[in-house]
Input
Amino acid sequence: MAYIGTSPANGVRRKHTYTATAGQTSFSGADDNNVTLTYVDTEYLDVYQNGVKLVAVSDYASTTGTSVVLVQGASVDDTVEIIVFDVFSVADTVSAGSGGSFGGNIGIGGTLAVTGVPTFTGRSVHSGGITVANDGQIGSVGDADALAISSGGVVTFSQPPVGTGMDLLLDATISSAVAQYDISSTYINSTHDSYYLDASLHPVTDSVVLYIRPFVSGSVVTSGIAYETYGIKDGLIHGDTTAYIRTSRNDIGNADGESITISGHLQNINSTTIPFAFSALTNIVKTDGAHEGNIVTGALVVGSRASVVNGLRIYFSSGNIESGTVKLYGIRT
Output
């Protein structure tokens, strides 16, 4: 075990004994017991000559830390004893029991274990990144799990992030046939004014067209919709006050691999002055090579401008949706 100063085995009082020669004044180095004289503070030094305690400065000088010099030379065979008391300073320390503050930099070569809550007034810099325990959380005192990180590295926010961007609200897979797929007010509501739709669908029935209808007040709209669909190969088709938005100029096949993919933007969801609008790019893949790209626009008519949209229905003109995926993102502005 390490000690500050001299270890207990050596004590805290060290005696040096010298046998003087005629007229000797300086005593240093190894004594009669081959112990070398050293001291730190002259205040913690006692000097005896033939058992008589000498007075510092008047009788001797002790300024070098390695020697004692008598004012008057000793007689031959005089015994000079120098008693050194070990001293050390414990100033400028932080109490282990009461705590305190370090004013300078601190370097730690090993592991720093903190059982309380660390507080940093400045910015923390870590060249290797920050590691959080498996299934750990990052958050404020009032919301300890604002950001949760799973053992697999998945990050989950307890509240939607603030600022521009997109929030994934719905990520659905259709694995068995359904007549239509409805996106409810759980996902389309007053939280966002604009949404992005990403869908790929395969029909049960051959030669069908994919339609989209909005919901207003929880009911699907079946009239008062206007749309224009431009097939890049075959030109324009449109409707003025129809029951749906048509997403392709031509029909879609049901052979394996045939499908329609939608990349769409929903706008004016909560507006009562500008009608709901939908715009998209759609892509049809066919086994006969007659692939098709479409530019699609659709909206509620002007007379329905006060209608707040809170859902979307996706369906084919005939038969069911056999399979596909539907993703919906809320756009933060």
Observations:
- The chain has a mean pLDDT of 89.
- The chain has three domains: 13-85, 133-161, 166-332.
